[in-house]
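REVIEWER CHECKLIST
Item 1: Sequence provided? yes
Item 2: Single chain? yes
Item 3: Sequence as submitted:
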Amino acid sequence: MTSTMLSPESAPFTPAVASKADAAPLPAILGTYKRQAPLFVRGDGVYMYDDAGTRYLDFVAGIAVTSLGHNDAGVNGAIQEALSTGLIHTSNLYRTAPGEALAQWLVERSFASSVFFANSGAEANEGAFKFARRWAKSTGAPAKHEIIAVRGGFHGRMPGTLAATDRPNYRLPFRPLMGGVSIVERDLTELSVALDPETAAAVIVEPIQGEGGVRVLDPAFLQGLRTLTQERNVLLILDEIQCGLGRTGTFFAYEQLGFEPDMLTMAKPIANGLPMGAILVNETVARVMQPGDHGTTFGGGPLLAHVAHHVVQRLSDPALLQHVKETGAWFGEQLQAIGQRTGAVRAVRGTGLMWGMDVHEPASAVIARAFAQGLLLVSAGEHTLRFLPPLVITREELASGLAILESALKA
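Item 4: Structure as written out by the authors:
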């Protein structure tokens, strides 16, 4: 009997595992974010407070989520009303009044025939991709399955949505990405080639690309894309997860475009901080979906749906939307003026209360200096500041933040 020695190349791989005693300490929350140091303990209106009592003016709103601000009496009341029923969760095996009421309200307020509730924006987009492929199967074109995304978009970090997200640093560690999803330039000629009616199921686009630098896409481009999709029998999915629900001065951003999509995804502010998303679908898509085609344990549960119903009614209030339009236009003018005074700004763009400012130095440096002076900002790229304050913010509160911004840019 002979023994065989394994070479180092052929030996089974055993990963080195450091003991807790030997390894550097790790945060209890997985380190996928570089969290800033202060420990935030409460919020009120457009302000957040850390454990030392320091107040910060919030121009981030949880990345366009807390559109009604923090500690809003109406939202708090809706939460208490929902809790008072004792019915927090049932699963989607059963009917609940809050979910049905919210869905009916959204259908009546939009182009949609039906609504699917999810738990986040990424889940909403993943679901929309599935719905598109399910619809495509019904057309009789056997190769029709491709999802086309427009250059500059951000649609999530799950397998399908990551493949549609134009952020190389997010994509690279996870290659190979999911197949059947591709990114095409913001050009109608390029898209015309990509939208082959035999292979393309849907195209997804953000009317305003938030993570992509707060890039407001030309309405003429979007109208041309709608025409292309109709001619080629391809679904159009509008991703309004960041730019919808009042952020641009209309409840839906598509209301300013002169056409309706086949599907629309929404999330972020729908429950003012509670985790919820939704997919709005037209009759064409709704009629092909069958029981078992998709599912969610938590989506549209009675607690979240009750709160979201309160929030969407508030966000669709004409007085609030007019405030967003007028205050947003004023805010954009102030950003332009700061850029001219400081010489530190390359460009300003946006609409409503969604603005981007390209700066010469790294955005992170400006954000850090503003943070030290009590203003919360977020970036949208290495050299872009993004402004997403609560929609209820006043001009006086905006002016206070603008003064800090100008100081941080001059530093």
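Item 5: Key structural point noted by reviewer: DSSP finds 13 helices and 17 strands in the chain.
Item 6: Recommendation: ____
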